[in-house]
Amino acid sequence: MAMKLYRRRRSYARVLGAVVMASVLAGCQLISSSKIPLNNNSCIFFNGDSEASIGAREHPRVVASYGGVYKNAGAEEAVARAVGRLVAASEDPSQTYKITILNSPAVNAFALPGGYLYVSRGLLALANDTSEMAAVLAHEMAHVTAHHGAARQQQEAAAALASKVVTNIVDDPEQVEAAVASSQRSFARFTQAQELQADSIGVRTLARAGFDPYAAARFLESMGRYSKFITARGDEKAAPDFISTHPSTPDRIARAIREARQIGAPGIGEQDRSAYLAKLDGMLYGDDPLQGFVRGRSFLHKALGSGFTVPAGFQLENTPQAVLASDGKGTALRFDGADLVASESLPDYIQSGWINGLVDNSIRHTTVNGLPAVTATALAEGWSFRIGLVRKGETVYRFILATRDPSEAFLAAFDETLKSFRQLSPTEQARLRPLTIRVVKVLPGQTIHDLARRMSGIAPARRVKLFTLLNGLDDEVSLTVGQSVKLVVD
């Protein structure tokens, strides 16, 4: 969460709606096992401008949404060299690209019209060689050269117009619903076709540039495994989302393998693992220090000098706007901060209009580890909310928990989280250091478990799994002496 707090009346006017969205985030910016985007320009809505102007207009917003630009000489060189080779081998070598590494731990990459390419440092950290990173970039470049953004704009506008016409003319609600659903499915098929086309073009471009064409399938598989790891789904298979703008991961992997086989047998093309990992050595991993730290189930902010812990089963996600958490069962948490006028009381603030559906007489005074606090309940659009405000000087910290099933477990999760909020000691603050990627060589006799024990910033029980995921290994594989591997250390 950014250190900059939201101004009093600028804080989310409909913050409860934002909490509801946190419980269903599985689209453009987050990974899900059935929907793993290599592109999320479906999030951008166009208005008929030229492709170059669209990209130029949206670029500042994209950068701001993903924590700014990440500066790292090694990572920049690795990406630039790969893009140079891909451009020369692409279907339009005259196309120029503007490349941005986003300061985000999320595994993501996407493109905007006009040649704006984006890749997160989280994705670079997950890739294990230049060919895997290049596979993602080739896919995004294919969206640009195939002008998918403009085509998607036209299709989206046509679908919106069709829905509007049907809504205005047809009196039967069931017919309206069926027509709108049909339009949505048509648009989904259209965007899925774009993704599959970009996959095919990307694999062919990858091979023409001299990279391993099987890298696309390999990295998609890594993303699927990593998704299950961060969402704590284990081996559970998620049902495919038919309205998804991206085909399911197993289907994309199979198609990518078929595309690669048309080029040649496995073992062809350059992977460039050692050189790529050397460029990542020292790269920031996970949260930016200015945004606070997620350590297991705890969020700790060095500059603000405070932190809290979510209950077992919840997964934390730190974003520039707020800290989000979900238990994977429909309960979502949002934590952020806002300015508070010195003369304003917490009850006055909670009733100042930024909460929809506030239940009368639900406000209760309390304290949280010596700090003044209030709690309240809200009901809106079938959702139940528990709100907790903690005051520290002229700052109010806001906890909002949302669910459609307000059970005893929901109430207990709220109480446990709110009561965990505390001020950090100077020693705790001093110990908070950012995580980085450290690339080391495997020594004689070292095992996966030996190296995983050196990892930081994650629960000991999950270190082996993260080590194998970050290095593209199977749990039982034997390491080779001299092999380069990634560790996460502080």
Care to describe what's here?
This protein has 490 residues and is an alpha+beta fold. The chain folds into three domains: 31-280, no CATH class; 289-430, 3-Layer(aba) Sandwich (Protein Transport Mog1p, Chain A); 433-489, Membrane-bound Lytic Murein Transglycosylase D, Chain A (Roll), CATH 3.10.350. It has helices at residues 15-24, 51-65, 73-89, 121-126, 130-145, 148-169, 173-208, 215-230, 249-263, 273-280, 346-350, 408-420, 426-431, 448-452, 460-470; strands at 98-102, 109-112, 116-120, 284-285, 293-295, 298-301, 306-309, 315-318, 323-326, 332-339, 364-368, 371-380, 383-392, 395-403, 422-423, 435-441, 484-489. The strands form four sheets. Strands 8-9-10-14-13-12-11 form a seven-stranded antiparallel β-sheet, with helices on both faces. The protein has a four-stranded antiparallel β-sheet with strand order 5-6-7-15. Strands 1-3-2 form a three-stranded mixed β-sheet. Strand 8 and strand 9 (323-326) form a beta hairpin. The two termini are 20 Å apart. The model is unreliable at 3-48, 161-167, 179-190 and 233-246 (pLDDT under 50).
